[in-house]
Amino acid sequence: MKKQKNKTAGIIRTRFLLSLAILLFIRIGTNIPIPGINYQQLFFYLQSNILANNLIQTFSGNKGFTIGLFALNIVPYINASILIQLLISFVPKIANLRKEGIYGKRILDRITRLITLGIAVLQSGIIAFSLKNVLYNWNYFLAFQIILSLTTGAMIVFWLSEFITEYGLGNGPSLLISFNILSNFSNILGLLIKNNNLSINIGSLIIGIILFFVALLLVILLQLSWVKIPIISSKLLNSSKYDISAFLEEDNNYIPLRYDTGGVLPIILTTSVLYGMDLFLLPMLKIPILSQCYQLFYWVLFFILNGIFNSTTSILIINPTNLSNELKENAVSIKEISTESGLNTPIYLKSQVIRAAFTGSIFLSLIGVLSNLMTLVLPLPGFSKFGLTSLLILVNVISSIYREVQNIIISNIYDDQETSIIK
């Protein structure tokens, strides 16, 4: 028994150290400046241009004025994954690849890599040509050099993230995002300790901590909750040998519908739309009365858009029609439809998905409100970036790592039992 525990602990330790080493390597690469850029010119320009400064900080992940080799990080792959999900929902040929097992998965992975490469080139090009009016020595060769450096760095990060998923602990892309979030949060704490003259009283700090833990509790509750749709085999339903009513009362056979099937995608879409609206209405918001009215309008629109995007992404991901066909192929029926007449399976599933998504959107909106209240109570520089999306990603990653550790433990137990039986 002790030998088994040591073996399991050794596997978990090795995977953890491998993931940590890769994350630290990527973090170091983010701070290695790409060649050819006059950073003194860039420094003076970014000090006077807030939008450009935010763009560089968003990609580089730090508060410096350096465009690092791994500045794009895992962003191209995340965008490619979202695009693939949309293509699977709208393009039947790509959707059919998911049903072709390992062969289909290889094709989808290849398509994802190509899209990741294309997005990396596009984002690198945006950065390279945005520096045209900044650098005196800018030319097309320098632009090509910047694009090549950033694209190469992005593909290295993507490959390393896949390596973490395969041989490390946790999902590589999600772990990278979480590491960036925690790095940003550690920068905020360091700033708080360094500048202890910030005007934050004890009461505000306590309220901010309470709001954080309430938001965290709601996120955990959202992650661990789902709607149960009871199912039953048609063979059992049509059989006279079993007590069907007793079977229908059991709670073991069901389809779980998560409240946050879309993950962080609805929040990303909602905040993107609202951010664009902020930029468009910025001149009007300088009027005090309009600014106050806009705050109420902003949160009402946040609730509405969040509900629409969460419902839409949930329907696209689950696809009630395909799920209904899979149930039919496996001779499985839904309890409510089996016991009541006049109900259509796809329509019923769609209504349940929308109901779950609407409930989830209420949770997400409440967490979003709490996250924004935290930034108002604790007006720390950069704290606004540690919001709803960050909480969702962190809790999701921690829960997935916990499940992976549990799977490793169970897998080793079964392996040891099989070995002892063979002997």
Automatic annotation (TrEMBL):
<keyword id="KW-0812">Transmembrane</keyword>
<keyword id="KW-0653">Protein transport</keyword>
<keyword id="KW-0813">Transport</keyword>
<dbReference type="Pfam" id="PF00344">
    <property type="entry name" value="SecY"/>
</dbReference>
<feature type="transmembrane region" description="Helical">
    <location>
        <begin position="111"/>
        <end position="131"/>
    </location>
</feature>
<feature type="transmembrane region" description="Helical">
    <location>
        <begin position="356"/>
        <end position="377"/>
    </location>
</feature>
<keyword id="KW-1133">Transmembrane helix</keyword>
<dbReference type="InterPro" id="IPR023201">
    <property type="entry name" value="SecY_dom_sf"/>
</dbReference>
<feature type="transmembrane region" description="Helical">
    <location>
        <begin position="172"/>
        <end position="193"/>
    </location>
</feature>
<keyword id="KW-0811">Translocation</keyword>
<dbReference type="GO" id="GO:0015031">
    <property type="term" value="P:protein transport"/>
</dbReference>
<comment type="similarity">
    <text>Belongs to the SecY/SEC61-alpha family.</text>
</comment>
<keyword id="KW-0472">Membrane</keyword>
<feature type="transmembrane region" description="Helical">
    <location>
        <begin position="296"/>
        <end position="318"/>
    </location>
</feature>
<protein>
    <submittedName>
        <fullName>SecY-type transporter protein</fullName>
    </submittedName>
</protein>
<feature type="transmembrane region" description="Helical">
    <location>
        <begin position="137"/>
        <end position="160"/>
    </location>
</feature>
<keyword id="KW-0150">Chloroplast</keyword>
<dbReference type="InterPro" id="IPR002208">
    <property type="entry name" value="SecY/SEC61-alpha"/>
</dbReference>
<feature type="transmembrane region" description="Helical">
    <location>
        <begin position="67"/>
        <end position="91"/>
    </location>
</feature>
<dbReference type="GO" id="GO:0016020">
    <property type="term" value="C:membrane"/>
</dbReference>
<dbReference type="InterPro" id="IPR030659">
    <property type="entry name" value="SecY_CS"/>
</dbReference>
<keyword id="KW-0934">Plastid</keyword>
<feature type="transmembrane region" description="Helical">
    <location>
        <begin position="205"/>
        <end position="227"/>
    </location>
</feature>
<feature type="transmembrane region" description="Helical">
    <location>
        <begin position="264"/>
        <end position="284"/>
    </location>
</feature>
